[in-house]
Design brief:
The structure holds two protein chains of two kinds.
Chain A (H helix, E strand, L loop, with lengths): L5 H10 L5 H20 L4 H18 L9 H21 L13 H6 L7 H6 L3 H12 L4 H8 L3 H21 L4
Chain B lengths: L2 H31 L6 H13 L8 H8 L4 H23 L5 H17 L1
The chains are: A mainly alpha, B mainly alpha.
Chain lengths: ~180, ~120
C-alpha cells in the first residue's frame, strides 16, 4: 500500500477524488473486522461476512461524520460493535446482552479439529461483552482506552470484563492442560 | 487548480493536522495499557488466542463489498469495462477475417502511392 495514511484516504473518499480510496481502506481492515465477527459469532463464517459487509456499508455512508477524534480503526470497530449489538437485539430481543451466548458453529469446530482445544469452545465460556473485550485487548492488542471507546463503556467496566473473562479462560485452559 | 482539487487539498491538510493530534491520543492510549497489571494468566490467554486465531484472507470479500456499495459508480463502470473488453476481443476473433489483412495493407499502400504522385 502507498504512503497514504488512513486519514488521507478518508479525505479522498469524502471529496470523491479517488474512487479506489475506500477500496484501499476495506482491503486494509477487512481481515480485522471479519475476524472480530468470526469470534463474536463463534466461527460462523457466513454470518460474520454478512455483518462485516453491513459494517463497511455503514462506514461508507457515515464516513463524512468521521471527525478523526479517534483513529479510523477505532471508529470502524465501534461501528462493527454497534452492528453486532443490533444483530443481537434483533435475534434475542428480550434476552439481556450479557446472557446471549451464540452456539458455536459446526464449521468453527471443524476448522479447529486439529487443535487440542477449540478456540470457539473457549470463547463460548464468555459473555458477549467479555468476548468483545478479550478479543480486542489480547488479540488485536488494543489499549484499554481504545476498547472503552469502541464499546462506549468506562475503562473501569472494560477492566472488570477483562478480568472476569481472563479468569474464566485461564481456568478452562489450565483444566485442559494448555500451558 | 480547480475547486475540487482545492477542496481535496484543504481536507488533506486538515487531516494531517488531525493526524498529529491523533498520534498524541494514541501514545497516551498505549500508556493506558500499562495500567493493566499483566500476569501469567494474561500471557496464557494471549498466547492461546494468537496460537488459535488464523488471519482472515480477503477471498473476494472486498470485490463483493464494493459492488454492494451505494452510490458508487466506479466499480460498476470497472466491471462494465472488463465485460466490454471481453466482448470486443470475442468479436474480433470471431468475426474479423485476418486473411483479408494483406489485401487491406496492399490497398493502403496503393492509395499512399497515388497520393504521393499527386
Amino acid at each position: 500500500m502507498s504512503k497514504l495514511n488512513d486519514l488521507s484516504l478518508v479525505a479522498q473518499v469524502i471529496a470523491g477524488a479517488n474512487g479506489r480510496a475506500f477500496e484501499l481502506l476495506v482491503r486494509k481492515y477487512q481481515g480485522q473486522v471479519r475476524r472480530f465477527f468470526l469470534h463474536q459469532t463463534l466461527g460462523d463464517r457466513m454470518q460474520s461476512d454478512d455483518l462485516s459487509q453491513e459494517t463497511f456499508i455503514k462506514a461508507y455512508r457515515q464516513i463524512a461524520s468521521f471527525r478523526s477524534l479517534s483513529s479510523f480503526q477505532t471508529w470502524l470497530y465501534s461501528i462493527a460493535y454497534n452492528v453486532w449489538l443490533d444483530h443481537l437485539r434483533a435475534k434475542h430481543q428480550t434476552i439481556q446482552l450479557d446472557e446471549a451466548l451464540p452456539v458455536a458453529s459446526e464449521e468453527g469446530k471443524h476448522n479447529a479439529v486439529d487443535m487440542k482445544i477449540d478456540l470457539y469452545e473457549a470463547l463460548k465460556l464468555l459473555t458477549d461483552t467479555e468476548r468483545t473485550c478479550i478479543t480486542l485487548f489480547y488479540l488485536d492488542d488494543l489499549p484499554i482506552r481504545q476498547v472503552a471507546n469502541i464499546t462506549s463503556m468506562p475503562e473501569s467496566t472494560v477492566k472488570s470484563h477483562l478480568s472476569r473473562g481472563k479468569q474464566k479462560m485461564a481456568t478452562y485452559l489450565k483444566q485442559h492442560g494448555y500451558e | 487548480m480547480n475547486s475540487k482539487d482545492e477542496h481535496t487539498r484543504e481536507i488533506t491538510l486538515s487531516v494531517h493536522l488531525a493526524d498529529n493530534q491523533q498520534q498524541a491520543v494514541q501514545s497516551s492510549a498505549s500508556s493506558a495499557k500499562e495500567d493493566w497489571a499483566w500476569d501469567a494468566d494474561d500471557e496464557l490467554v494471549r498466547k492461546f488466542l494468537s496460537d488459535h486465531s488464523r488471519p482472515v484472507g480477503d477471498g473476494g470479500f472486498t470485490m463483493r463489498l464494493m459492488l454492494h456499495l451505494p452510490d458508487i459508480l466506479y466499480y460498476t463502470m470497472e466491471v462494465l469495462k472488463y465485460v466490454a473488453c471481453i466482448f470486443l476481443l470475442y468479436g474480433m476473433f470471431r468475426f474479423v477475417d485476418f486473411s483479408q489483412l494483406n489485401q487491406i495493407t496492399h490497398l493502403f499502400n496503393h492509395f499512399t502511392e497515388l497520393a504521393s504522385l499527386q
